[in-house]
Design a protein that fits this description.
13 strands; 3-stranded antiparallel beta sheet; 16 helices; alpha+beta; 6-stranded antiparallel beta sheet
C-alpha cells in the first residue's frame, strides 16, 4: 500500500513541530498573532494572545521586514536583468549589431515583467512572508498566475536533500466545504465505500490516518514532489491535491524545476536541516527575553511606587475614618505626627533597571536596523544598491539566501507565466541563452551607464568631436545608452532604413536645387521665367469672374 498525502504529512510533522515551537517562542516576544499557539493547520481567529511588555521587538521585526522588502522587490526599480550568453553568441557568429538588437529585445521583456509585478499585490504577500521569516524562520510561497500566496509554517511540512534542495512539500488546509467546487463537495459528502489509496506517492506500508474533519470543514492536502532527471540535474516538479485520501480530479500539475511555482523559503541555512532558523532566534532572542523581564519589573515597580497610601498611628488621636471621609478644606481633629505617607524606597533599583533596559534596547535597535532609518520621498537605484549592501553586511548571508531561493525563481516564474499567456515572446533557446542576474548585479546597470558616459566624455576631451564622429557609431551609442537607462526605444529612434530614406530625399532635393540654379543661369530661361512671373501677377490683379 502506498502512503497518501495525509500520511506523509503526519510522518514529517514531528520534525516541523520542533522548529514551529521555537518560532512560537520568538513570536511571543515580538508579534504574538503571527504564529498561533494552536497546532491546527488553520489559525484560530478567536485565540487570545498575550501582549508583550515591550514593543521594540514588534517595531524591529516590522522595520526589518520592510527594509528587506525594499531591497528584494524595490518599487519602480529594476532589480533584475537578462544578460546574453557571450560564449553562445560567439559560437553562433552573432555580429555586434545583432547582439545590440537582442539586448534591446531583452530590455523590453524586462520592462514587461516589471510592469506585471507592479500591477500585482505580490509585495503585500511577500511582506507577510518576510515577517514569518524574521520571526519564525520559514515560509512557503505559491506563485500562481492569479497572484502570490503565503503558507505559514503550521500549514506545511518540507523535506530537503543534503544540499538543501527541496524534495517534497505537503500543505494542509482546513476549509469550509461550501467554499469548495461542487465535485469536491460531492467527494466529501458522498465518499466511496472502497477507501483505496489512489495517490501513489511513496512505496511503503502505512496505516490509515484517522480523519479529523468536522461536519462543516474538510482538510485539503497538496503534495508537491521534485523529481530529478536521469543525470541528477534539475528535472520536473509535480503536484496534486487530495481530500479523504483521494486525488481531486483536475488538481494535478507539473512544471520544470527552474520555473516551479512552489518556493519553500528559509531565513538561515544550516547543513542537513529541513527548516531555517529565524533572525529573532539567531540574533535577538536573549536580549528580547532580558528586556521583556526588565520592562515587566519596571512597569510593576512603577505602579507600586505610584500608589498613594497613608499610615496612621494606632495609638494616636487622629482617626483614619475621619480623614478618609472629610471633604477638601475641612477641619479634622488630630495630630499631624500621627499621619505619614507610605513611600517605596525603590527609586535606585528602578534607575538601574532603566539603564540596563536602555543599553539592551540600543543593541536591539542595531540588530533590527532601527537606527538606520532614512526618510526619502523617492527611492533611487543607488539607494536600493546601498540598502542591499547594508542588509548583506548587517545580516550576513541572509540577503544572498533570499536572492537565490526567492528572487531568481520568482522572476523566472513570472517570465514563464507571461510567455504562456503570450504577453511576451519566447526566447530562442537555440540562439541565445539568457543569463539572469538579480539584486546587486541588476542594479549594476546604472554603473554601465556611468562607465559609458565617462568613456564618451573622455574620448571627446582627448580626440575632440571629430574623433567621436570618426571612431564611434552614433546609432550603436544611442542604443547602448538607452539600454543602460532602461528606456524603450521602439518608435523613438530612427531606424537605418528611415535614415537612408531621409538622406536620399535630401540628396534629391539638393540635385533639384542645383538643376534649377543651372537653368536660371541661361538668359533664355531667365526671360521665360520673367514672362511667367508677369503672367502670374496679371492674373492676380484681374481675376476671372466666378460663375453664378
Amino acid at each position: 500500500m502506498r502512503k497518501t498525502a495525509a500520511q506523509r504529512y503526519e510522518d514529517l510533522i514531528s520534525d516541523r513541530d520542533y522548529y514551529l515551537s521555537r518560532g512560537r517562542a520568538c513570536a511571543r516576544l515580538t508579534i504574538p498573532y503571527l504564529i498561533p499557539t494552536s497546532s491546527e493547520p488553520v489559525a484560530n481567529n478567536k485565540e487570545t494572545y498575550a501582549v508583550p511588555w515591550n514593543g521594540i521587538g514588534a517595531r524591529g521585526c516590522l522595520n526589518l521586514a520592510s527594509r528587506m522588502l525594499l531591497a528584494l522587490l524595490p518599487p519602480t526599480q529594476q532589480f533584475f536583468r537578462f544578460s546574453l550568453d557571450e560564449a553562445e553568441l560567439n559560437a553562433q557568429g552573432v555580429s555586434p549589431e545583432q547582439k545590440s538588437e537582442f539586448e534591446m529585445a531583452l530590455s523590453q521583456i524586462e520592462r514587461q515583467v516589471l510592469r506585471e509585478i507592479e500591477a500585482s499585490n505580490d509585495r503585500v504577500v511577500f511582506h507577510e512572508a518576510l515577517l514569518h521569516l524574521v520571526v519564525g524562520g520559514n515560509a512557503l510561497l505559491y506563485i500562481a498566475p492569479e497572484g502570490l500566496r503565503c503558507f505559514h509554517l503550521n500549514r506545511y511540512v518540507c523535506q530537503r536533500d543534503p544540499m538543501g534542495n527541496p524534495l517534497e512539500v505537503i500543505t494542509c488546509e482546513e476549509l469550509a466545504i461550501e467554499t469548495l467546487p461542487q465535485k469536491v463537495q460531492d467527494m466529501v459528502r458522498n465518499p466511496e465505500e472502497d477507501d483505496e489509496i489512489t495517490s501513489g506517492l511513496i512505496d511503503d506500508i502505512a496505516q490509515p490516518v484517522p480523519r479529523r474533519d468536522s461536519g462543516d470543514t474538510v482538510r485539503i492536502y497538496t503534495y508537491v514532489k521534485w523529481e530529478k532527471n536521469s543525470q541528477g540535474k534539475k528535472g520536473t516538479v509535480k503536484w496534486h491535491q487530495e481530500v479523504n485520501n483521494k486525488i481531486i480530479p483536475g488538481s494535478e500539475g507539473r512544471a520544470p524545476e527552474d520555473v516551479c511555482p512552489w518556493l519553500p523559503l528559509r531565513m538561515t541555512r544550516s547543513d542537513g536541516a529541513m527548516y531555517g532558523i529565524s533572525y529573532v532566534e539567531a540574533a535577538a532572542l536573549a536580549d528580547l527575553q532580558t528586556v521583556e523581564a526588565l520592562c515587566q519589573a519596571i512597569a510593576e515597580g512603577s505602579l507600586a511606587s505610584s500608589k498613594i497610601l497613608f499610615l496612621v498611628k494606632p495609638s494616636g488621636i487622629t482617626k483614619a475614618a475621619n480623614l478618609a471621609s472629610a471633604p477638601n478644606g475641612a477641619f479634622v481633629t488630630g495630630d499631624p505626627n500621627d499621619v505619614m505617607a507610605l513611600q517605596v524606597q525603590k527609586s535606585t533599583d528602578l534607575q538601574v533597571a532603566m539603564q540596563g533596559k536602555s543599553q539592551i534596547e540600543a543593541r536591539l535597535s542595531q540588530a533590527f536596523m532601527l537606527a538606520d532609518v532614512r526618510d526619502s520621498e523617492r527611492t533611487t537605484a543607488e539607494e536600493v544598491r546601498l540598502q542591499a549592501l547594508q542588509i548583506e553586511n548587517s545580516l550576513g548571508s541572509i540577503y544572498s539566501i533570499l536572492q537565490t531561493e526567492f528572487q531568481v525563481p520568482y522572476v523566472s516564474r513570472k517570465l514563464d507565466i507571461l510567455q504562456r499567456e503570450k504577453k511576451v515572446p519566447k526566447l530562442p533557446k537555440e540562439l541565445v541563452k539568457p543569463v539572469m542576474t538579480v539584486g546587486l548585479a541588476a542594479v549594476g546597470r546604472g554603473n554601465d551607464l556611468e562607465q559609458l558616459v565617462r568613456f564618451t566624455t573622455t574620448l571627446g576631451q582627448t580626440m575632440g568631436p571629430e574623433g567621436l564622429q570618426t571612431y564611434l557609431k552614433p546609432s550603436e551609442l544611442i542604443k547602448r545608452l538607452a539600454y543602460s537607462m532602461g528606456i524603450d526605444t521602439v518608435g523613438l529612434i530612427k531606424t537605418d532604413e528611415e535614415l537612408a530614406q531621409e538622406q536620399q530625399a535630401a540628396q534629391q532635393q539638393q540635385q533639384q536645387a542645383m538643376l534649377m540654379q543651372s537653368k536660371l543661369a541661361d538668359p533664355k530661361n531667365m526671360a521665360d521665367a520673367a514672362q511667367t512671373a508677369q503672367n502670374i501677377q496679371i492674373q492676380s490683379e484681374n481675376p476671372e469672374p466666378q460663375p453664378q
